[in-house]
Amino acid sequence: MATLKAPSFKTISANKATTTKEWVVIDAENLPLGRLASTVAYYLRGKNKVNFTPHVDCGDNVIVLNADKVALTGNKRETKEYIHYTNYPGGQRSRSVAQVLAKHPAGLVEKAVKGMLPKNRLGSALFNNLHAYAAAEHPHEAQKPRTISLN
Q: Which tens digits make up the pLDDT trace of 40-91?
């Protein structure tokens, strides 16, 4: 009896040695915050690549420029609050969008992207690949980043 030669369907899993990390620049001026954050998280995770593996850092390094000029729809600029707890009794604190922008201009983008990443050690490692700046220039020119337009 003849044996059939079936093709091998092996799933190739990426690891640290087989991944290629690129540098990507995104201009956040007049882009809605949620849509920007989901796209940045998509690139940080590496879901745009063919060899995406969920448990490996195979994403790109993302530079976000003009993070303080991001657009908020509706009246979120006046009503949205960021709430945290200090772990002391009565320690619930809240900050408005204006207070977050005044203290840390790129903080809005960072908070939105961090909320869209996994809540584990991989998510913390992926978050370190995000570089958000309030200005239009950045100190990563030596890496020769490519620009992505989201409009």
A: 999 999 999 998 999 999 999 999 999 999 999 999 989 999 999 999 999 9
Q: Residue 140 corresponds to which tokens in the numbers above?
A: 């990563």
pTM for this model (two decimals): 0.88
* HEC assignment per residue over 17-66: CCCCCCEEEEECCCCEHHHHHHHHHHHHHCCCCCCCCCCCCCCCEEEEEC
Partnered with residue 94 across adjacent β-strands are 83
pLDDT band at 13 (very low <50, low <70, confident <90, very high): confident
- C-alpha to C-alpha distance for 64 and 44, rounded to whole angstroms: 12
| 3-state SS, residue 121 | helix
Map out the domains of the chain with their CATH numbers: 23-72+107-148 (3.90.1180.10)
- Give the bridge partners for 9, in sequence order: none
Cα end-to-end distance, the chain, whole Å: 61
Report yes or no: 17 and 51 within 8 Å, Cβ to Cβ. Answer: no
Q: Which helix (H) or strand (E) segment is 123 a member of?
A: helix 121-127
